[in-house]
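Hello,

Following up on my earlier ticket. Below are the two sequence lines again, exactly as submitted.
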Amino acid sequence: MIKVTLLWTDMMVWLLIVSLLAWGWTVSRSPQVKKQWHTIFKSSIAMASAVILLFYMLFTLLDSVHFRFAMPITQTQQTQSEEIQYGEIVSLLDLAMVHNIESTERTYSAPFATHEYAKSIVIDAEGVTKQEYLPLKHVSGSDGVMKHTLFALVIGLLISGLLVFSHMFWRKKRGNKSELPWKAAYMTLTLLLVTFTWFYLLSYDYHVLGTDKVGGDVLYQSLKSIRTGVLIGTLTTLILLPVAIILGISAGLFGGWVDDVIQYLYTTLSSIPGVLLIAAGVLSMQVMMDNNPGWFETTLERSDLRLLFLIIILGITSWTGLARLLRAETLKISQIEFVTAAKAFGVGKWTIIRRHIIPNLMHIILISVVLDFSGLVLAEAVLSYVGVGVDPTMHSWGNMINQARLEMAREPMVWWSLFSAFVFMFILVLAANLFSDRIQKVLDPRNKT
Amino acid sequence: MFAYILKRILYAIPILIGVNLITFVLFFMVNSPDDMARAQLGAKQVTPQMIEAWKVDKGYDKALFVNEHAKGVYKVTDTLFVQESLKLFSFDFGSSDANRNIGTEIKERMGPSLAIALPTFMIALITNISLALLLVLFRGSTLDTGMMIVAVMIMSVSGLFYIIAGQVLFSKMWHWMPISGYEPGFYGIKFIILPVLIGVFSGIGSGVRWYRSIFLEQINQDYVRTARAKGLSELKVLFGHVLRNGMLPILTGVVVVIPTLFMGSLIMESFFGIPGLGSYTIDAINSQDFAIVKAMVFLGSVLYIVGLILTDISYTLFDPRVKL
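Thanks for your patience. The regenerated structure is below:
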């Protein structure tokens, strides 16, 4: 028996996907916007970063399908009640990585190590105490690394080759000779897939990225952290966008007291230092959650609720910048002839907003969404360090950095946790930054010289 | 000019009241004084009398917004919100949970914060502008594109990485500088160099990109073309015209930051063990000391508004077209 569990953030992820699809559908109907996107993807850097972003998104989605397995019913329980007991909440990603969850070691170990990082005191059969490096419990031995690597490389190449060639075949069959740099996309995809299969297949026999203080697998933690990072980056936008768009446009279009009130609102909010406002929000939320233990059943649900609150707080605190930009731009647009003409023809306010204002604001919205994304992913690490980030039990790059930070003083250094968190974060943020650069270059009218 | 400044200061008052309202709602509505008392006194065996005593001691025993027992105007003024706000407006921050005066603590900690923030700000400003000018001079060349790629990469790395990597390389492996600590005066320089260096470096990516885009916007203007047509050298055009006219957008972004330098940098100070306002704030957040967090929120908003007013004033000084 399987019971599908829908966490709060899962719901929002799927809502995000639905709204993305809806937006994609509207884009595909407008030939002008379609052409713009075509221009964006004409750069091979944009193509490559889009593939990376999609790869991260895929992991997020895999990690956003949660369910619980029924516990095996024991004799005593059966007599007591008919109710089925359910185990812990797991996601699809957890199922794929179940060997990593179960292979906990005692403490730190380096990537591909066969023995523990520090010496332990052992009493051998003759009763003599010795200090030696204990072998790891879940590692098969170091001699097979080369063989495993070769095998994984072949598998990775096969999978990516299959995907790439079927896509090429599909393109040929449709006969569209687009000028998009598919080569860059294929190369990025191959690189990602080969690296991932290598990590994944070897993770059955080794701790590819080492283990942390309590022996947890770092690769598993890094992969689980993807969801947290991507969620904070995307769902915050989902919350702040409607607020910023509605308030920004109404301030610019209606003027008068509406403008005054909205301006007052965002000046007040933005005058409070960002981190402090977030900290104040998170601290209050913590107290609120402590007072209402009935809101969640398991620790996972608790940390999920905390993530949701954090995202809402981030959304509330960060709409001000975009609203200010949108207000200024709306003011500018509403003075242009086509809007005055529309007004003169008696076109309704909503139609003007829908047909004339929003399409002309789209580039500002898009640029700020992608720029915010990378900023938020980086901010998560800092917030976790300050102590107002996600729940300490939740996997996130910020928590990984925070826990590993103190171990830098050790000799030899415990670097792998930090390193993995930073690299996973860097790739995502770099891809987002490069992509936003490209969007800015194509969509920003100031760049057309 | 004077009338304008006065108007701006008066306009700041409703904003600060709004700030107070937000912090008040966050700290007192969600988390009532009773909850605070329970958290402070420890969850076990707290009698209602103890809670009342704690509230009286802290001055939290009044109604939140409307005092039913008072008469006339006092219905509104004799409330926790008004009392707390008045205290903040007179910069009386009260005492922290550890029973130390927050006002004096803030005064003591401003120095160390500035010792880090001011050099970082100045050096970063000069480096970023010079680098951006250099790139604009060689715009479109391999140097330009290469540096822009490097800038995006610098931007994409978490700030925590620079701090940790800097500490490991400079302090742990090469022993050039102490890993953390602070000392006032000249001999304290050895503690300051590393945080300043890291602060400058981590901001170089976004900084150079920003200044470069400002200068590139200027370079396509008509007056630059005229200057070139006059036969001015490219360097003269850059420094005499592009830099001077680029000063205006730079001012908007830079002047507003100057007052907030007093607040210090949260992360930098706590990593390097500098007893400034940044680490003070972090400690307060970690120990959930609401009084300190509230004081810092208020102080931060005041400084930000001061920055906005300074920006407007500097505009009139640098741009003869703007008249207040």
